[in-house]
Amino acid sequence: ILVVWFIFASPYFIKAQVPFPSDYLVSFFPPWSASHGMPVKNNAMPDVITQIYPWKTITIDSWKLGQLPLWNPYSFAGTPHGANYQTAVFTPFTVLFFLFNRIDAWSILILLQPLLAGIGMYVFLRTLGRTRSASSMGSIAFMFCGFMTVWMAYGTLGYAALWLPFIFAGIAGYMKKPGLWWHPAFVTLGTAMSFLSGHFQISLYVFVASLLFLVYETVRLRAASKGIHTGFFLLLGLGIASPQLLLSYDAYGASLRSASFVKGEVIPWNYLITLFSPDFFGNPVTRNDWFGHYAEWAGFVGVVPLLLAMYALIRKKDAAAWFFAGLSLMTLALATPTPLN
Questions:
Q1: What residues contact 3, with CB distance under 8 A and at least 6 apart?
Q2: In this structure, what is the dihedral angle of CA atoms 292, 295, 296, 301, given to the nearest 10 degrees?
Q3: d(C-alpha 164, C-alpha 240), whole Å
Q4: Which residues of the chain fall short of a pLDDT of 50?
Q5: For residue 71, what are the β-bridge partners?
Q6: 154: left (phi over 0), alpha (psi -120 to 50) or beta
Q7: What's the predicted TM-score (pTM) here?
Q8: Distance (Å, whole) CA 294 – CA 146
């Protein structure tokens, strides 16, 4: 996992290149965007330089002055900053900006995502009793799956998602051996870290999936008391994240958007072919994506891992495999034009 991650991150470590789409500054906005053939490499990442990085700058500057980063004086006549969920003002990874200069801290923040995702998935799969080779395959597939890849530059959604296998490992481990301290720590801190990472929607998915896995393990092992204890650890994680959750809930209630609900981003059935060929309908980098929303609809995990997962369902048919097959079908049903959606 470390070797694969270092190869991926080598442009930063060896060539001092920064994972930041700065080309937008000179090509994506008027008047430069009006010229033919502007050299934008990826048309899906403008929010990084218009929102995520400026917000991170305000956050770091405030903390370094010993102030709570609650207010943004630079947007309109001032706007809530800490309550703006995507600012992630309470994430512990802010400490990187106190240890390194801003460019290096940002680079490490972005590049840590696949490494942590791989470690978490490896720990979880080993907790399930999978072999080292199978665990390595699953870890690398998760490190660079479509979702982690398309959102990596943001430094928010990836962090919200990568704690899922840590939480699963904690749940599975605690239900087997409740005496080990790191199992409840995984559940509690994984939940808290996800909700402090800057993207509530993804963290909500993580929490619901964790709750379903907890119910499954409780029923399978007939261990109600352990299930209740583990549920407490999940709630404790929410409690740790409550400063962010309460601030954002208060701001959401005061926002006009709180009264606006629309049904959108339903993935059509024919787009599921991208599970086998992610660029079937084009790619933002090559400027030929003509159908759908590439980043929002990315579900690719790799052809080999997907085929191996299907083969495992046919061959093994153990309880864990069936649970995750059911979870996969449920997530697809929530994203596609079904009655559940």
A1: none
A2: 100
A3: 17
A4: none
A5: 80
A6: alpha
A7: 0.93
A8: 10
